[in-house]
Amino acid sequence: MADNPAGADVPLGSAATADMPSRRRLQALELLLTEQRFRIARYVEAYSTPGATPHSVPGATPRLCSRGLPRPTPGVDSPVRELLDALPMPTTLVLPLPGERGGPPEFYYVGQNQAARADMARRLPPGTLPSWTGPVPLFERFPTLTDTAVPRLLTEAHRSGRVQGPEPAEWPLPGPDSLVIRVSSEVRVIPCADLLLLTWERGHESLTAQEAQRLVRVGWAEWNLGDGSADASSGLPGVLGLPAGQPLPGLVELGRMVTPDGLEALYRSVHDILLCSQVADCDLPLYGPGERIVRFVAEPVRLAHGPVWAVRAVLHDVTDDRTSRALAAQASREARTQRERADAVAEVAERLREAVLPGFPAELARHGIEAAAVYRPEARAARVGGDWYKTRILPNGKVLIALGDARGHGLAAVTLMAKLRYALGGLAYTGELVERLTGWLNAVACDDGAESTATAVIALYLPDLGLLRWTCAGHPLPVLVRGRRACLLDPPPGGPGLPLGVLPGEVYAAAETFLRPGDVVLLYSDGLIERRGSDLDRDCSRLLAVAEACAGDGIPPGDEALDTFVRELVGALTGPHTADDATVLAFRLVHDGTD
Question: Are 553 and 483 in contact, with CB atoms under 8 Å apart?
């Protein structure tokens, strides 16, 4: 165990600063690694003792010792070509000769090894290169090499006698049938006596791998547990957010870089790797700006029949991915909360609507009237609109018939709708004229606040006269269906009045319409006819045409037939989904009340 406790000499803000649980986790991690180092030492000691076998190492199995195995002795007089062919990488043999009059050296292509011939046979179509005819100037045989790093590397290796490269190089080769072959390699020049060995590896794989790791913010590391050393890819410091040139942290130092939750995950991962030989996978949140999160995927590296010798890991900066996931999860939670809240509001509003939109009183039939109503809510509003209607037989024998539309949606609209509906029902018992009732209802809406506005048609039917007296407060005009014809009722003198709640003291005028037996009057909200991009005249014309079509074969007597007529009308005008609440109240005069 180290002299200093784990977490000492750690800057403020790190995992171990005044955090005893984190200190204990770091100490447990360091103890785990120390014990593993002892296991490795005992295993190596058992193998290093003359005559010893792995039987003395717990958990080990017998293995032949390499001591005393015969070693091949290469012949020192082997030909140069045999030496070249023994090299595993493609190699070209280059002979440098002094240049004319002290100029730069000339480089002659004098041969290549078996690996080079096999590589060119794999990557170049037949006929790309001329047949071998003996030594030739290198840049005459491969003229496109002059624009690469190869001339510089050859010159410097010849001058200094030191290995040059590796460096990436790309050059084209003219192929058969006007094809151009792209050669991409990582080249190196090795001085060898009076010759130069030009080697290449296809596609400069190491540089490509480094760039690929940088693009996806991935690095690898291997921590050797026997001596505490470590090796890593060049991009790992960037993955961990470390300054350039800072030494690779060991596993304990890595533990000091992560938050307490990450430290617990790191300890469990190392524990499973060392003691269970399992592959570990966890997220490590790091201290520091940006709240960096690194995914840690690691596996054990074992000695043959021995303990875990090293921990090999791939570390991936997944900060953006985890942040996106967290934001998506938060958005999903917020959407679910909003949906639950909307469902609750819709349920309350629906129950309130059911309470304030009851059926029709049975007394209507005794006054020679049939009635039907259809309400279709806006698809997005979840049945929380402000449409309302009211029918009532008054003590003086008159019949109150009204339909309105409170502004907006939601509980506020339903509340205003209920307030106006109940207020009108009470005010109508005074027996006052319909224009006075409308003025009073306007005062109620004005007292409720600047946002409490509504439109309405309020009517009183006088059965003994067969007369309908009605007012319009900014609302669409009623429709009269007589026989198979439909028309808009003429507005009150001076035109429709202002909507309710706009201007205190507004005076409303009443229109008068005499009804005949069989007449149907339609009161409706603007959601039934208004369409985006249309105009009121066109909307009204469409309403009249549909009403006449639905009444084309006549409307049989009875409430059910009237209800069927209204539903067909609403379905034809709104379709399966409405852009706004649509409400229709229809009442039909069966007889004039004088019978």
Answer: no
- What residues pair up with 295 in beta bridges, in sequence order? 283, 316
399-409 sheet: strands from edge to edge: 385-393, 399-409, 454-462, 467-473, 511-514
Written as one letter, the residue type at 515 is: L
Q: Which two tokens stand for residue 139?
A: 């840049």
Q: What is the CA radius of gyration of the chain?
A: 47
More confident residue, 99 or 385: 99
* Residue 237 token pair: 């410091």
* Distance from C-alpha of 584 to C-alpha of 389, rounded to nearest angstrom: 9
Please give the residue that has the higher pLDDT: either 208 or 110.
110
**162 phi and psi angles, rounded to 5 deg:** -115, 155
On the question of pLDDT at 110 being above 80, the answer is yes
CA–CA distance, 373 with 562 (Å, rounded to integer):
9
By the 8 A CB rule, do 542 and 529 touch? yes
Query: How far are the Cα atoms of 61, 108, 109, 153, 194 from residue 190, in angstroms, in the given order?
Result: 44, 15, 15, 9, 11
Q: Are 109 and 136 in contact (CB under 8 A)?
A: yes
**Residue carrying structure tokens 């200093």:** 4
pTM of the model: 0.47
What CA–CA distances, in Å, run from 216 to 249, 319, 360, 485? 21, 12, 70, 73
∠ CA 411-414-415, nearest 5°, is 80
* Cα–Cα distance for residue pair 233/242, rounded to 1 Å: 13
Which tens digits make up the pLDDT trace of 405-459? 988 776 778 788 888 988 999 999 999 999 999 999 999 999 887 778 999 999 9
H/E stretch holding 159: helix 150-160
- Say how far apart CA 182 and CA 144 lie, in whole Å: 11
Tens digits of residue pLDDT in 86-102: 888 899 999 999 888 77
Task: Tell me which long-range contacts 300-304 makes (C-beta under 8 A, separation of at least 24).
Answer: 300/273, 300/274, 301/222, 302/277, 303/40, 303/43, 304/63
Whether 6 contacts 15, CB under 8 Å: no
Beta 280-285 vs 230-232: how paired, if at all?
unpaired
H or E element, residue 324? helix 319-356
The C-alpha angle 500, 506, 510, rounded to 5 degrees, equals 85
Average pLDDT over residues 560-578: 85
Question: What per-residue string of b and e applies to 319-346 under the rule 16 or more CB within 10 Å gives b?
Answer: beebeeeeeeeeeeeeeeeeeeeeeebb
**Range with the poorest average pLDDT among 62-66, 77-81, 516-520:** 62-66
99, two tokens = 């240049």
SS (H, E, C) 18-36: CCHHHHHHHHHHHHHHHHH
- Alpha carbon distance 209, 217 (integer Å): 12
CB 457 within 8 A of CB 403: yes
Residue 273 burial by Cβ neighbours in a 10 Å radius (0-12, 13-18, 19+)? buried
Helices (H), 166-259: 205-215, 236-240, 251-257
Mean pLDDT of 233-250: 84
